[in-house]
Amino acid sequence: MEYSLFTKLAAEFFGTAILMIFGNGSVANVELKNTKGHHAGWLNIAMGYGFGVMFPVLMFGAVSGAHINPAMTLAQAINGMFPWNEVLPYIIAQLLGAALGQFIVYLTYYPHYKDTDDAEAILATFCTTDADNKKLNYFLNEMFGTLVLVFGALCCLMDPWGVKDPAAAAIVVGFIVWGLVTSMGGPTGPGLNPARDLMPRVLHAILPIPSKGTSRWNEAWIPVVAPIVGAIVGAWLFKAFFA
């Protein structure tokens, strides 16, 4: 069944919002003071992001492809796997969805943002940073992480077994994200998605949060550009060897 562009955009909007609620919501639960999950650990965050990707792909994969990531949309278009006339609408829907999802996280954790005086912990609930404060490492981690994500997701969703059983493929994609956060997530978070980093960073800059510190705009281009580069290479590898 072919859905209208409006329906596809709604799927991308709500799918990206769900990604943010599960993903950055899990970070807020771990990092902010006096939550039930305070200091629950990295696996809690990895699960949040894994489920945050798995559920939208299950819900909307058959509607819009559930890109929920501008890097995935651009990578597929550049490699001839997605129509260019839908790229900008998809990205706008993803950016707006990311903003909504992050704002919901802010609202639900509002008392805990007020209780938290650690600026780094607060920033972590919005966007990524490099643990070693090295821009090159930041770029490489986000690039290679997104490369693996896009390559793995396309292999799952577009290979014959995934086309035959899209629900199973969506579940495996969720586990890919879960595994990536546990394995390659240490240096940066990770972001792996320009919308997931950029729009929350904007909200971090404008929302009235005590002790929030700087939004670190000097490095904000990295989790936007690096995932796009990695996604393009990942999609090219899939198309060259397995499409």
TrEMBL record:
Organism field: Bifidobacterium stellenboschense
Highest rank taxon of the organism: Bacteria
Residue ranges that the Swiss-Prot or TrEMBL entry lists as coiled coil: none
PANTHER family, per database record: AQUAPORIN OR AQUAGLYCEROPORIN RELATED, AQUAPORIN-9
Gene Ontology, cellular component aspect: plasma membrane
Transmembrane regions: 9-30, 42-66, 87-109, 143-161, 168-186, 220-242
Name of this chain's protein: Glycerol uptake facilitator protein
Pfam families tied to this protein: MIP (PF00230)
Subcellular locations according to the entry: Membrane
Recorded family membership: Belongs to the MIP/aquaporin (TC 1.A.8) family.
Alphabetical list of CDD domains matching this protein: MIP
Topology within the bilayer: Multi-pass membrane protein
Alphabetized UniProt keyword annotations: Membrane, Transmembrane, Transmembrane helix, Transport
Upper lineage: Bacteria, Bacillati, Actinomycetota, Actinomycetes, Bifidobacteriales
Main location: membrane
GO MF entries: glycerol channel activity
